Amino acid sequence: MRAKVRILKVKTGGFTIFINPKDAQEWKIHPNDLIRIESGKRSVYGSAAISDFVGVGEVGLSEDILESHQFSEGEVVALSPAGTPESVRYIKKKMRGEKLRKVEIETIVKDIVDRKLRNTEISAFVTALEINGLDMDEIAALTIAMAETGDMLDIDRKPIMDVHSIGGVPGNKTNVIVVPIVAAAGLTIPKTSSRAITSAAGTADVVEVLTNVTLSLDEIKRIVEKIGACLVWGGALNLAPADDLTIHVERRLSLDPRGLMLASIMSKKYAIGSQYILIDIPTGKGVKVETMEEARSLAKDFIELGKRLGQYVEVAITYGGQPIGHTIGPALEAKEALETLMTGKGPGSLVEKAIGLAGILLEMGGVAPKGMGRKVAREILESGKAYQKMREIIEEQGGNPDIKPEDIPIGDKTYTIHAQSSGYVTAIDNKAITAIAREAGAPEDKGAGIMLHVKVGEKVKEGDPLFTIHAESEGKLDKAIVLARRLEPIKIEGMVLQVVGNL
Amino acid sequence: MRAKVRILKVKTGGFTIFINPKDAQEWKIHPNDLIRIESGKRSVYGSAAISDFVGVGEVGLSEDILESHQFSEGEVVALSPAGTPESVRYIKKKMRGEKLRKVEIETIVKDIVDRKLRNTEISAFVTALEINGLDMDEIAALTIAMAETGDMLDIDRKPIMDVHSIGGVPGNKTNVIVVPIVAAAGLTIPKTSSRAITSAAGTADVVEVLTNVTLSLDEIKRIVEKIGACLVWGGALNLAPADDLTIHVERRLSLDPRGLMLASIMSKKYAIGSQYILIDIPTGKGVKVETMEEARSLAKDFIELGKRLGQYVEVAITYGGQPIGHTIGPALEAKEALETLMTGKGPGSLVEKAIGLAGILLEMGGVAPKGMGRKVAREILESGKAYQKMREIIEEQGGNPDIKPEDIPIGDKTYTIHAQSSGYVTAIDNKAITAIAREAGAPEDKGAGIMLHVKVGEKVKEGDPLFTIHAESEGKLDKAIVLARRLEPIKIEGMVLQVVGNL
């Protein structure tokens, strides 16, 4: 069947192709059937919706399709029903617990990217992986297939360094400091980051307060070849697109099978050509990886996978038992990171982690002698060279390099929670802090978040301020206060934990 | 948020709720998010689509929703984002290989029916069942939950008999003959059937050639209480609606986990109150159950499940190695069944299977002495009493009881395939026969199908007609001929299978 394209002003979150009821009847197409449209060398698969929104002989495309596929209003395309994709057989093979061959994994990934597999089939794949797992051969094949079905970056400077923190610890603006230190030392580090999904701020959300983070691959190549670094939002790029489609399903099932997690992270690194990669695994209560044992096992897998991909990987298991630094939320974190870069000083947990990670990268990249990376990193930070590099990054990405911490607007609706007793801070609950910051509006409201006045181990007196909630609206502030009172995220205990009487 | 309902002329195959981009932004609703609308005691869940199709303050409902939920144009409803359904936790429990409790299974089924779980989650459930299975406690709980979340039939005549054939054998119009025999003997048998999904004709498709099969539960109750039987399409009823939603996903993955298959069949029997159930398992090459061992194991499960549900189940393992009777396709099968009922005679494979199954039911229902069922069934068929009962069924369901076999229109575009050598028919390929009949237009084109002139074991001479393809259009006939020549569904071999020379 030949049909004329109409672009419909609708987003369904999938690829939806609208067909008139008369055409659907003639072509025996039912709602939600997989169909294919084709024009010259371009083709796309989508789910049928049957509707009067389009006339007979017309085919309506949802805007989702236009984001990645070029079809234009009035263009004539061929439309046909599509059968069951071949890769469903391989998904079933994994259900039976069998090992998948490289070409089978490639077919699954290609069918995901081509939208031949929809959420229903991707969900079966994710579930089969959750139950039956993947071995390292399969994970390597999956990683490469995910990278190669998307865009790849080829930067004309070597070696390419990279750093990645496994999510989960609030306030983790560390890499906003690590990247300029590493680039200031002369290394190349094209850093892509994600936005917050379940957290209060992703690195991309934080950097966006300072400069533009939505760049094309060509712009990234130009900038990184010029100044050695960037800090951009990976989601704007077509890096490992199968990963985004898979993650959407994983999130709905709150699943994160290890093989997919490894492939997800490493495919993006592979796609931008990273050769020396530092993985930061924050470990502690209330973050993704809670025990040292789990962190070590995951570290081993990252290193092994790196070997298969021709990448040199080191892993830093870091303390993730409480937030990093004092701020949580995009603007608050951007402010803290910028202050730290400008003055070379900042909260101990932030500065020590940043120079620790940067130091490892400097040694990996051969610009600091073994055992001296941390020292060199500290010098670069304290000398203002890292700040200078950050100014270049801000400027090249389209922001104002003269931005000052006090220029950054912070939510002006505030409320401070005070200590109800004297004692020591024994715990700060990561999950509760994140929940309160989100309730206050983060990450969408960039000025929303939390300023911590105390950290674990500090002594407080009754009535001392513990933390301040920032919001952009009174309504959200009120909701965050209610949640803060309920969750009590900061725990204070006297030094005397228990008195035992006469036995 | 309160919004005014608009009914949109669109079918997406799911429950889709359209929201204006401005409202979506304000309410932080993204495409494909799960949302809930509510008005008084009615509520429904659906997937968000963001579109200008509706104005600010309006909510557009896809027609799919209106099929089962009453909302009217202009009605004011409350709209809210919905979180992750509780039952996702239980699906994950099954992924871990744990046994589900009754209440957990009930929650999953309820969430499927309420559309809180969409294809993505149902697919995870189906995949987890495929891999980790269900034990009989779980299957029984699933069966009852599926039945009780839909409509139930309460017929004021006891005992209620039922018969069900596991799909797969072409030409299986047997139950069109079994049901009137059983009812003519005074028993009650409210038979619901399905339409063809992957076959060339389901029982509902066949009966629809003779009379209306789309009836309400009230009409079924009235008819069955009056004449003791019906032959209707189960898909028109709201029996075990979770099953239909699950089957849609199973079909896309071409999966059919045993626990779900048992629950699927038995939940519909439970919902219409069947007490004595005969399960027919055709066994042979190219049907669902290929080996006797598998058939016996499945039979044991049906019987055990029946016990848990308070139903008495017997199982007939029948020969399914070739098509039943001589015809395949709705009109051709209806004609053959009607001729058999009118004359009391027909192809041996059809008559013997029909009176065999009917005989078992007569004994189960206590209207034939043990061992005499088959004989009594044959008498009822040959005496014309079964035909008389079929006339009542046709008339009560709204058809013309005087319909004659020669009144039934058969596809008049025909082509006959002839034997290319002499010998014996050693095999008729079920899957090939079905594929050719479907290529000719069955089941949508009711007159399309295949007439077999030979069956397995018969002697043929070169040039003898083997089978005739019937179609309603030349185009489809041509395509069916091409497929028939490629597949060669009827195998002829000389009696001498191999000559071994001097060893």
TrEMBL record, chains A, B:
Keywords: Glycosyltransferase, Hydrolase, Transferase
Alphabetical list of Pfam families matching this protein: Glycos_trans_3N (PF02885), Glycos_transf_3 (PF00591), PYNP_C (PF07831)
Residues annotated as catalytic: 256 (proton donor)
Biological process according to GO: AMP catabolic process; pyrimidine deoxyribonucleoside metabolic process; pyrimidine nucleobase metabolic process
Amino acids binding AMP: 168, 194-199, 203, 264, 288
An example molecular function term from Gene Ontology annotations: 1,4-alpha-oligoglucan phosphorylase activity
EC code: 2.4.2.57
Start and end residues of each Pyrimidine nucleoside phosphorylase C-terminal domain: 424-491
Catalytic activity: AMP + phosphate = alpha-D-ribose 1,5-bisphosphate + adenine; UMP + phosphate = alpha-D-ribose 1,5-bisphosphate + uracil; CMP + phosphate = cytosine + alpha-D-ribose 1,5-bisphosphate
GO cellular component: cytosol
Broadest EC class assigned to this enzyme: transferase
Residue ranges of the TM segments: none
Superkingdom: Archaea
Family: Belongs to the thymidine/pyrimidine-nucleoside phosphorylase family. Type 2 subfamily.
Main function: Catalyzes the conversion of AMP and phosphate to adenine and ribose 1,5-bisphosphate (R15P). Exhibits phosphorylase activity toward CMP and UMP in addition to AMP. Functions in an archaeal AMP degradation pathway, together with R15P isomerase and RubisCO.
Protein name: AMP phosphorylase
The organism's taxonomic lineage, starting at the top: Archaea, Methanobacteriati, Methanobacteriota, Thermococci, Thermococcales
